[in-house]
Amino acid sequence: MRDLRTLPKAHLHLHFTGSMRPATLAALAARHGLRLPELLREHHLLRVPATERGWFRFQRLYDAARACVRDEADMRRLVHEAAADDAAEGSRRLELQVDPTSYAPLVGGLTPALEVVLDAAREASTATGCEVAVVVAASRLRHPLDARTLARLAARYAGDGAGEVVGFGLSNDERRGRTEEFAAAFRIARAAGLASVPHGGELLGADHVGVVLDELRPDRLGHGVRAAEDPDVLRRVVEQGTGLEVCPTSNVGLGVYATVADVPVPRLLAAGARVALGADDPLLFGPRLVEQYEHARTGWGMDDDALAALARHSLTLTRAPRDRVAGWLAEVDAWLAAPPSAPPDPSPRG
Ligand SMILES: [Zn+2]
Predict the structure, then answer these.
(1) What residue ranges are annotated as transmembrane (predicted)?
(2) CATH number listed for the domain at residues 9-337
């Protein structure tokens, strides 16, 4: 059994606010004189009974956390800590998702909000060794014209490296808004060479995965895990090579599945889908990236070969230049070639 913290991997589904360390949230709240809701002080949603989990509670807590980010220094701190935490977990590449809309008022507009994040991403990449690229995400709760504005902004910073925009997403409550109305924004993003990486197939089932495939032509789906509910939809996902950014503890935190063992990743993989594990919003759900791989080992019974294959999926699904990816894949081979050691002490986690 090899140490999963040293398994080279990429992190493709992590939100800017949701990446925050609980201690940082507490520090920012204290600095700005804000009172945190009790559940945020207790750190995560998994403490809520399964029957009471759900999107609305999640959204309320997320908004309260976001309100603690009040200036440019806070924004930079979040990016740096996300990169540092990812680096410590073996992540070579983080594609961090941000909707600059919420932060625009803090720094004088959408453009500076995105530029602060990109600049911090460049600095954090150098400082930590984990390459941080950015996905600009529009919100389903806003007008589709706002999404187009964001897509045009994202297009101006398109690239494939650290501190560049690599993708365009669509986040927030999947049940809200009409997916087809966001197609124009995604056309703008794709024309600029950005990956299409909308959320879909978490709160809604396989039918909506089909709609997202038709309308937004995703390179990767945020979640997409419920494609497993319909063999035809899953076949389309596989045939089109659409990556699935599966976030097991987020699924459980939102009550989509009762336990991590119920998240149908083995079925997705057996069908030939490419799955990259992600943490989504560890501030609210608890576990960060490496614990998703630990769940794969304990919940789905994956051996080190299977875990290395998962890591390879995550790396090949990045938007990094292919020579960078080849180097990381060689590091995965080296991880697997090294002799396994005794399992690390299991740390008590909630
Ligand atoms: Zn997400």
Answers:
(1) none
(2) 3.20.20.140
